[in-house]
């Protein structure tokens, strides 16, 4: 592989005009496609194989006119202090708003609160339910504007009016902190390279790669049902890895220049050596992201595949466009150890022979491996303690910022009708196989009324054929609480006895039940997913490092860092530690997909640092150094760059903490803290400590396995053989002249 990538790097350096033009053309093509595409909304949500999804599908089949997946809105009215919504003027205002709401072309029905008994007991709060023909993603702006206008007219008349539901879905905003994250990455690159030109190359290529990836996602959003969150996550991950991959190749290029090589040769060798590490690091990230498809949740699969595509683009750009841009930069990119004239007058950055920080740290770890190992493991173990109280759920309007109308509507409904009113359960009774459907509907209603935690049960609403009915159940607890989850399980448990007595099937659905089933499915898939991803990456790393213990140590270190990161997420978003500092307005259960998503993404990123750092150690060991000295050599060449890469990735992820979307905010924080734990505790401390304790045993591989594995040549042995051939050829030509 090293020889192939070496030739690719030299080709890109020589044919830089062609390579640059190709990538610019792809960016332009993707941009045109994105500009002409429809704006992405929230993707459709389905959970194949769950009871909630089966009930949802049954509703669509048995109640064809109800538009089960249509958007809904709850317009909540509150009378001024001391008044009631039923007072003459207030009632006239509400009824006028209801009349206006019903005139929209996409509206299927609007419930008058005074006829639908949707007024609170004290008479101060009422709500009107609006149902639409299409989903919130497909709802036209005109319908949303009409909804907001009707609410504003009622406000102008003196009522407090807020709108909840999925009809007013807003595109997430990342805020200015995303730009700050990129700016911090630029500062780190300038400090690392001591050159504005060298620092600008990784940023430029990363932005081009993310531009191509996100524009392609935007162009395909409507056809593939990709939500706005998909492109945000692809941008987050693609930007971070794009900068890092380019950073490693530029760093190796400068190191090759420092050894006296010509620029084209240095570019080829940088791609042949560091590029090999980039390929395998990228493969681990792609495996982890594409592996999310095993969960069998379409939304999660699309997010993973889209992000993996952006990572693949980042790898290709690092291997081709970076050497092309190095060709354009020429002598403006200085050899390692020198600064540009602007930042350092072209002088050497440090005295020759003076050990750098990485060398000093590695030497300390090699001398005190056991103490460093224990300190690192205990520290991560302490950070992971909050993860033992992890509670999972999905965000609803109650987790929105208090500045949003959805959150204020949620609070008003809780105030007027109780916390469970925001998450009613939809019970579907399939009595097609029953001899007495009406009796079955009555029995189900009576059974549910007798369960603990039920506030109200609506009468059964049958379909036209009379073989299926809907029953609405309002719990006495909020949608994301454990009590509500227990009630769902209790209704499903009672359904077994009802089926035995009446042959009617009882299914529970609705957004609350969907969330519960979603969380359960993710929990059930976590271990198989972990086994698949870690197993595949373990085999890949065996090929890269030609060792059993090094990949095993890498996987165990990853588990430590991801558990510590989950602990930090629980402490902030569930317990509320530092919540105000991070802009977390509402604490509560951790997003259900967070553990499995962090496992996938963090594992891929963790293996990045493992590959980049340990391949330099492996290279030194293969070339004759003792195990302890190989560790020091690896840190001397790689610690500064890995540190810069980790800081850059943390800066990029931290930029998304400013997002208005709670899911993006949580993922941004979780990935940033995970990179910190993995890069600075696991890879910089625990990894060298374990390797020092293992000594030569770290690089042990059974002979039969060594013969069976393909030789991918990450260490660049093929390039050394190429050098020897060149030297032999030069000697032969010299002898021929004599």
List keywords for this structure.
single chain, 738 residues, alpha+beta, 5-stranded antiparallel sheet, 4-stranded antiparallel sheet, 23 helices, 7% strand, elongated
Explain what the structure shows.
Helices cover about 65% and strands about 5% of the residues. A hairpin with a 5-residue loop joins strand 8 and strand 9. About 55% of the residues are buried.
Query: Which structural class do you get from the secondary structure elements?
Result: alpha+beta
CA-atom Rg in angstroms: 30 Å
Residue-averaged pLDDT, rounded? 84
**Terminus-to-terminus distance:** 38 Å
- Give the number of helices: 23
Please state the overall shape, judged from the principal axes of the Cα atoms.
Answer: elongated
Largest sheet descriptor: 5 strands, antiparallel
How many strands appear in the DSSP assignment? 11
What portion of residues belong to β-strands? 5-15%
User: Which residues form runs of ≥5 with pLDDT under 50?
Assistant: 345-351
Helicity level, as a percent range?
55-70%
Helix and strand arrangement:
Blueprint: H1 2-14, H2 16-35, H3 51-62, E1 72-78, H4 88-101, E2 107-110, E3 125-132, H5 141-156, E4 160-165, H6 177-193, H7 196-224, H8 228-258, H9 263-290, H10 298-329, H11 341-344, H12 357-367, H13 369-384, E5 392-393, H14 405-417, E6 425-430, H15 437-449, E7 454-457, E8 461-462, E9 468-475, H16 482-502, E10 505-509, H17 511-545, H18 549-574, E11 590-591, H19 594-622, H20 627-654, H21 662-694, H22 703-708, H23 717-737
Parallel strand pairs: 5-11
Antiparallel strand pairs: 1-3, 1-4, 2-3, 6-9, 6-10, 7-9, 8-9
Helix pairs in contact: 1-2, 1-9, 1-10, 2-7, 2-10, 4-5, 6-7, 6-20, 7-8, 7-10, 8-9, 8-10, 8-20, 9-10, 9-17, 9-19, 12-20, 12-21, 13-18, 13-21, 15-16, 17-18, 17-19, 18-19, 18-21, 19-20, 19-21, 20-21
């Amino acid at each position: 592989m090293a020889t192939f990538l070496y030739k690719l790097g030299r080709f890109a350096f020589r044919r830089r005009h062609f390579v640059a033009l190709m990538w610019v053309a792809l960016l332009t093509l993707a941009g045109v496609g994105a500009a002409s595409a429809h704006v992405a909304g929230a993707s459709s949500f389905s959970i194949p194989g769950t009871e909630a999804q089966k009930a949802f599908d049954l509703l669509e089949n048995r109640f064809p006119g109800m538009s089960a997946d249509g958007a809904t809105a709850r317009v909540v009215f509150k009378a001024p202090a001391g008044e009631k919504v039923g007072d003459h003027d207030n009632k006239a205002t509400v009824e006028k708003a209801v009349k206006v709401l019903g005139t929209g072309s996409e509206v299927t029905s609007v419930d008058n609160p005074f006829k639908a008994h949707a007024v609170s007991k004290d008479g101060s709060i009422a709500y009107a339910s609006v149902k639409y023909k299409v989903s919130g993603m497909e709802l036209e702006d005109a319908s949303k504007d009409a909804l907001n206008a009707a609410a504003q007219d009622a406000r102008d008349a003196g009522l407090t009016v807020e709108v909840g539901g999925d009809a007013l879905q807003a595109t997430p905003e990342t805020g200015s902190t995303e730009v700050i994250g990129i700016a911090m990455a630029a500062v780190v690159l300038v400090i690392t390279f001591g050159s504005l030109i060298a620092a600008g190359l990784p940023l430029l290529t990363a932005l081009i790669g993310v531009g191509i990836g996100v524009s392609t996602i935007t162009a395909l959003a409507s056809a593939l049902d990709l939500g706005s969150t998909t492109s945000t996550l692809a941008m987050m991950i693609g930007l971070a890895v794009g900068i890092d991959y380019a950073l490693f190749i530029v760093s190796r290029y400068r190191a090759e220049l420092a050894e006296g090589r010509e620029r084209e040769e240095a570019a080829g060798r940088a791609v042949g050596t560091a590029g090999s590490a980039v390929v395998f690091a990228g493969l681990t990230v792609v495996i982890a992201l594409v592996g999310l498809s095993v969960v069998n949740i379409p939304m999660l699969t699309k997010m993973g595949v889209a992000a993996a595509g952006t990572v693949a683009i980042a790898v290709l750009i690092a291997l081709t466009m970076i050497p092309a841009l190095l060709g354009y930069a020429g002598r403006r990119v200085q050899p390692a150890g020198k600064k540009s004239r602007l930042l350092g007058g072209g002088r050497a950055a440090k005295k020759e022979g003076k050990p750098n920080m990485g060398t000093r740290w590695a030497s300390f770890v090699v001398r005190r491996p056991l103490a460093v190992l224990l300190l690192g493991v205990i520290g991560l173990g302490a950070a992971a303690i909050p993860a033992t109280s992890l509670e999972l759920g999905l965000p609803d309007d109650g987790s929105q910022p208090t500045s949003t109308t959805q959150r204020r509507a949620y609070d008003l409904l809780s105030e007027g009708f109780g916390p469970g009113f925001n998450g009613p359960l939809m019970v579907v009774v399939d009595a097609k196989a029953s001899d007495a459907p009406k009796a079955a509907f009555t029995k189900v209603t009576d059974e549910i009324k007798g369960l603990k935690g039920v506030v109200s049960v609506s009468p059964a609403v049958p379909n036209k054929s009379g073989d299926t009915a809907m029953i609405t159940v309002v719990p006495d607890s909020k949608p994301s609480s454990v009590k509500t989850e227990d009630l769902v399980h209790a209704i499903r448990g009672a359904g077994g006895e009802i089926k035995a007595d009446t042959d009617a099937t009882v299914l529970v659905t609705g957004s609350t039940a969907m969330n519960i089933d979603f969380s359960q499915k993710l929990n059930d898939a976590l271990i198989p997913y972990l086994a698949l991803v870690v197993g595949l990456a373990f085999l890949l790393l065996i090929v890269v490092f030609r060792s059993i213990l090094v990949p095993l140590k890498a996987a165990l270190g990853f588990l430590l860092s991801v558990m510590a990161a989950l602990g930090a997420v629980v402490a902030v978003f569930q317990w509320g530690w530092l919540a105000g500092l991070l802009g977390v307005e509402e604490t509560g259960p951790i997003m259900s997909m967070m553990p499995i998503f962090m496992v996938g993404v963090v594992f891929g990123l963790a293996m990045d640092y493992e590959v980049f750092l340990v391949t330099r150690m492996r290279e030194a060991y293969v070339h004759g150094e003792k195990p302890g000295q190989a560790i020091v050599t690896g840190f001397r060449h790689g610690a500064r760059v890995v540190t810069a890469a980790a800081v850059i990735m943390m800066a990029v992820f931290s930029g998304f903490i400013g997002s208005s979307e709670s899911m993006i905010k949580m993922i941004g924080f979780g990935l940033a803290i995970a990179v910190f734990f993995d890069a600075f505790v696991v890879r910089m401390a625990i990894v060298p400590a374990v390797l020092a304790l293992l000594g030569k045993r770290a690089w042990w591989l059974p002979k039969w396995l060594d013969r069976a594995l393909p030789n991918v040549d990450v260490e660049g042995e093929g390039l050394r053989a190429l050098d020897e051939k060149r030297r032999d050829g030069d000697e032969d030509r010299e002898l021929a002249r004599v």
